[in-house]
Design brief:
The protein has 20 helices and 39 strands. By secondary structure, it is α+β, with helices and mostly antiparallel strands. The strands form 10 sheets. It has a 7-stranded mixed sheet, sandwiched between helices. Strands 3, 4, 5, 6, 7 and 10 form a 6-stranded antiparallel sheet that branches. The chain is elongated. The model has no long low-confidence stretch (mean pLDDT about 90).
Length: about 800
């Protein structure tokens, strides 16, 4: 929001420096982004009067002027054709600087000395919009609306000396997107009286009802719609004070009607619009929802397609404006306009924002409406616009208005307890001191209740009142105090577990990644997830950034596979990654959030057994025993090259090579392996109490067994049978070879195990080991597993 300090001083007497003003406004809550002085590039340019002019002797298009600049008469050569004796014009003296930081020096032009330069609008950084009577490609001849004192600095003479302050206004303070809103803030900050006069307009009769009718359809997202009319208007430039203030606030002056609507918008903060009544069919305005695919050409000469969720201002046959954003092509004011309808309305903020974003059309109006304005502003804005029309002699103001206000806004009353506010902030102000602060910003205090001003839609409770008191009392005056009580910090056991797991995975050569917690429903199909899989029951995000981030993820595998695909596309030859992140299961009243470990990788050194070894070692470090690996039927994984991991009958995860269909979906030719594990189940199963185990005193005996079993029998099942023989001296069983081929019957396979025997009390004999082996072989034979014949 750009603020003209000259305009602000119309309402509040500010006598501080610009630097002090900006600092204090920022401290009180109205943050200043920057400030600048109008015409700061212009130096040593003054008002001059042409006292004589004659043709240049050596040129057919140049003139020699004698120009009075106050303390002397200069000779200046010009090629402009619009300069006459007696004209007043800006004179750039020797050593002056014009717009664009271009320096002007005295010089000889075709043998004649020129002691300076007569300036055009552009050379002052202005345009014809700022001074409509000036010639754009000639010298700026000063009119009667400026100070023509000879020798006066041109910036002061034409009013190009305003201080412009750029405020960063937060979305909850729509009232500060106005000169009056910032005037109230400034008045409270500097303890100055704010002089705001109500628009002075006499309203009587019902004449307008014979000229115009208004209808607000139900569910149109219009909170209030007011209209007034001015007949027999005269389109002409606005007076200088309006043009100056619009220019300082970054708005281009156009003509008196358009400028009045922009002036009121900047002054009060609510956008207005003016319609040419000859283009309003049947003199009827209807506020309604657009029809699906209805079209309108807006004032920026762009054809736009509307949806049934958009709100429009229409006449009896067509839309004439997109509500709260921009008028239609034929609703604009032209030189032929005779009668004008002034619209002062309040529209639903979220509705305006949705339409603005969808159309890619952001305007000064939409920027204000989308912050949710109060409908109470509409009357003040309309009356102010009509008052200006009367004062400026724009036309004949119809002395009645139309006001459609379906549900009148109620006054907002909040509780007030000065003692609680003192305790909340940490200060000690009396009731009267707090009341005085609140009244400076237009609150009405009545004992233990406060009536909130209509324009402060951000105030809801006593906490908001506390903020108002704190910022105008002065944040710098609030004493600093140490926090009361002892703050106990530190990581939880689960956080320490996560950190140690990350350190282990990094030691295994895996790199950590971070991905978003949401993806698209199409990602389920990308990973080949079955239609009835419980993971397809997801939580949909109400306001997603886009379709690809529209649901909370129920598995992190799509995220992992996207990162692997990106690395593969960037020609990274070998990648091993992990992520510890949340997945979300749909439940009531809120989704269930579970921490999962997801791993993935590809490359020449990555295979099924590497991932199996990582999980085995992790479980070993966490003292998790009875680890089993069973065939996985997870549709994401290859049916013959994947496994689920089970501990004490509890599945903690599954891993393996991705299914060929998944590999095809992600367009990867390399073999990719992934796994996902419920980290919270692993944590629950872990035993973090490490017990010291001394080194064995006695030697071990190693025996190898080559066994033949059914091809479908899993290794861990064979190990379980061996261990079920309950041999006390059996220390470990380890598979070291799998063979299928010659000398092995069809449908069979050979598994070779290394068995280690050791006693805690003595050195074992061969006979004791042989007896144990015999018991194991018998147990195996009972399960149709026999020794392999060599």
């Amino acid at each position: 929001m750009k603020l003209s300090l000259r305009w602000l001083k119309d309402y509040v007497d500010i006598d501080s420096t610009i630097e002090e003003f900006c600092d204090k406004m920022t401290i009180s809550g109205s943050k200043v982004e920057s400030f600048e002085k109008e015409g700061k590039q212009l130096k040593n340019i003054v008002v001059g009067k042409v006292v004589d002019i004659y043709p240049h002797e050596d040129s057919d298009h140049m003139f020699v002027c004698k120009v009075d600049v106050g303390d002397k008469v200069l000779q200046i050569v010009t090629g402009a054709q619009n300069v006459n004796k007696g004209d007043f014009a800006p004179v750039a003296l020797d050593g002056s600087t014009i717009f664009g930081n271009k320096e002007i020096k005295s010089g000889i032009l075709r043998g004649v000395l020129s002691d300076g330069m007569l300036c055009s609008l552009a050379e002052l950084g202005l345009s014809k919009n700022d001074f409509p009577y000036a010639i754009e490609d000639g010298i700026f001849i000063l009119g009667d609306d400026v100070d023509k004192t000879i020798g006066k600095d041109i910036k002061e003479a034409i009013g190009l000396n305003d201080d412009i302050i750029d405020f960063e206004i937060t979305s909850n303070r729509a009232d500060c997107l106005s000169i009056l809103g910032l005037a109230v803030e400034a008045g409270a900050t500097f303890d100055k009286e704010v002089k705001i006069e109500e628009p002075n307009l006499s309203i009587s009769g019902n004449e307008i009802n014979d000229l115009l009718s208004i209808e607000i359809e139900e569910n149109s997202d219009c909170l209030r719609y007011m209209a007034g009319m001015v007949k027999n208007i005269k389109i002409q430039p606005s007076p200088l004070f309006i043009r100056q203030r619009l220019r300082a606030c970054g708005v281009r002056p156009i003509n008196n009607i358009v400028d009045i609507t922009n002036f009121v918008m900047l002054e009060y903060g609510q956008p207005m619009h003016a319609f040419d009544s000859q283009y309003v069919n049947d003199n009827k305005i209807i506020v309604r929802k657009a029809k699906e695919n209805e079209k309108i050409k807006t004032l920026d000469d762009t054809d736009r397609v509307l949806l049934k969720t958009d709100t429009v201002i229409a006449d009896s046959s067509k839309p004439i404006a997109v509500a709260g954003i921009m008028g239609g092509e034929f609703s604009g004011i032209t030189k032929d306009t005779k009668n004008v309808i002034f619209e002062s309305a309040c529209f639903n903020g979220p509705s305006v924002r949705r339409t603005s974003q969808r159309l890619g059309l952001r305007t000064e109006a939409s920027n204000r409406f989308e912050k949710s304005l109060t409908p109470e502003l509409s009357k003040k804005c309309l009356f102010r616009a009509l008052e200006l029309c009367e004062k400026l002699g724009v036309g004949e103001v119809v002395t009645s208005v139309i006001d459609c206000y379906p549900e009148k806004a109620e006054k907002k009353i909040v509780d007030f307890d000065y003692k609680k506010i003192n305790e909340f902030i940490g200060i000690n102000l009396s009731y009267e001191e707090q009341k005085n602060i609140l009244e400076k910003v237009r609150f009405k205090v009545n004992e233990d209740k406060v009536e909130v001003p209509f324009f402060r839609i951000d105030i809801d409770g006593m906490e908001d009142l506390s903020e108002e008191i704190a910022r105008f009392y002065g944040y710098d005056k609030i004493p600093s105090e140490a926090l009361k009580g002892a703050a106990v910090g530190g990581r939880s056991d689960f956080q320490n577990f996560e950190i140690s797991t990350k350190n282990f995975l990094q030691a295994c050569g895996l790199s950590e990644i971070y991905t978003y917690s949401f993806f698209s429903e199409s990602d389920f199909d990308m990973i080949n997830l079955e239609k009835d899989d419980k993971r397809r029951k997801y939580v949909k995000i109400q306001n997603p950034l886009g379709d690809d981030t529209s649901i909370l993820r129920t598995t992190a595998l799509p995220s992992m596979l996207k990162v692997l695909t990106n690395n593969y596309n960037f020609k990274n030859p070998e990648v091993k990654l992990y992520e510890i992140a949340a997945i979300y299961e749909k439940s009531e009243p809120v989704p269930k959030e579970t921490q999962y470990l997801t791993i993935g990788g590809y490359g020449k050194n990555t295979d099924f057994y590497e991932f199996k070894g990582i999980i085995e070692e992790l479980c070993k470090r966490l003292n998790i025993n009875n680890l089993k690996f069973e065939r996985s039927n997870y549709s994401v994984l290859h049916p013959g090259k994947s496994a689920k991991v089970i501990v004490n009958g509890i599945q903690i995860g599954q891993f393996g090579q991705i299914h060929p269909n998944v590999k095809k979906n992600y367009d990867i030719t390399s073999q990719v392996f992934v796994g996902e594990f419920d980290l919270e189940k692993i944590y629950d199963l872990a035993n973090f109490s490490n017990v010291y185990k001394p080194l064995p005193k006695y030697p071990s005996i190693v025996r190898d067994l080559a066994l033949v079993c059914d091809e479908d029998l899993l290794s861990y099942e064979v190990e379980s049978i061996i261990k079920s023989a309950n041999i006390d001296i059996l220390e470990s069983v380890e598979l070291f070879d799998i063979y299928k081929g010659d000398n092995i019957p069809a449908g069979k396979k050979s598994l070779a195990y290394s068995l280690i025997f050791r006693s805690k009390d003595k050195t074992l004999t061969d006979r004791e080991c042989d007896e144990s082996i015999a018991l194991i072989i018998k147990k195996l034979a009972d399960n149709q597993i026999v020794l392999r014949e060599i």
